[in-house]
Amino acid sequence: MKKRSGIFWLLAVVVSCFTSYSSLAMAGQTCPPTMGDAVINFQNYSITDYPTLPPGSMLSGAILGQENRSFYNCAEGTGPVTMRFVADNGLTVSGVSGVAPNGTGAPASVYEVPDIPGVGFAVGVRETTHCAGQPVHYIAAGDDNVAVCSTSDPSQMATQFFVVFYKTAQEIVYEQPNSGQIRAGKLILEDANGSVISEAGVNVEVAATDLKVHKSSCYISDNNISVNMGQSSVSDLNNGIEGEKHRFTIPLICESSQVNAVKIGFFGPTEKDGANNDVLTLSQQEGAATGAGIRILYGDSYGAAQGRPVPLNSTAVEAFTNSANQTQFSLNYDAQYVRTAPQVTAGQADSLATFSLIYN
């Protein structure tokens, strides 16, 4: 019996100048860009700050801003290359080093959001065709670039971008929108000798227009949650049997018991057809399963709504059950594989969503 397995990632919810990386030797442009800019988009996203959180705290999880786009067309026989993300030398490095959003590796280099004092961001990059099993790569504090992926076959290199927001000062200017896009850096390719073979490079920008920070009376105490989805039978899914439910819990802490105005919403890539717009798409990667997705269901924290699908990319979500004197909550949800196409094929079945506090 064919089975498929995967991990469902939930991520709670972008400088002193270093030596310019453009001084590297330039080889022949054997990998010209297919487009000039990569824009990291996230729609209607707002950040909430809990006033007592110290500088350096994450204000969001890793927000997936653009998925699986190919930016280079390398000539056949190009040979081994390394994809590298280089920070823009116009950024201002903040006074804090961010905790690595994936929980591993060196602290990330955090750059100030130009129009919102007290808030900074880090950009993460992952190549999903040849280096799909690797974590998201962030520029480490004190560096101005990071190697994303090395491969001997640079054809069809697909890239994901992520943005994480951090608190960079104790005092934050609330409700002040950022005025425009932020030039975050450049994506380049190097040959085995370290020479740049993508002369123009691809400019990476964070579409942070209208981004605002709200003062919060509640905060989520774990911004990164992984759900082990185990294995599901392809045969069962093809026969209309939904996958086993896997429980996960979001911990919420509030400064008072008056939390009726806050809810939790989930945001991420969904199936394009109307029938499955509440199902997260599987990450496109080498050996990925097809014809299925992941649905999030309300758990037993939601009374009569338990077992119903959570609407995605929407603020119209259910309020959780609130006991009168509670200030700490463990909000339960379930995730399961469901079929989204006539035929499911076996393979790796990962997905990613962002969760965020929503205030009425």
Distance between the termini: 47 Å
> How many helices?
1
CATH class of the largest domain: Mainly Beta
Low-confidence stretches: 11-28
CATH topology of the largest domain: Immunoglobulin-like
Q: How much of the sequence is in beta strands?
A: 35-45%
Percent in helix? under 10%
Following the backbone from N to C, one meets helices and strands in this order, namely EEEEEEEEEEEEEEEEHEEEEEE
Radius of gyration: 21 Å
Question: What is the CATH-assigned architecture of the largest domain?
Answer: Sandwich
Q: How many discrete domains?
A: 2
- Structure classification: mainly beta
Total count of strands = 22
Query: What's the main sheet like?
Result: 6 strands, antiparallel
Describe it for me?
With 360 residues, the protein is mostly beta strands. The protein has two domains: 13-214, Immunoglobulin-like; 218-359, Immunoglobulin-like (Sandwich), CATH 2.60.40. The protein is built from one helix and 22 strands. Strands 4, 6, 7, 8, 9 and 11 form a six-stranded antiparallel beta sheet that branches. A five-stranded mixed beta sheet has the order 2-13-12-5-10, with no helix packed on it. The model is unreliable at 11-28 (pLDDT under 50). Keywords: Signal. One of its GO terms (biological process) is cell adhesion involved in single-species biofilm formation.
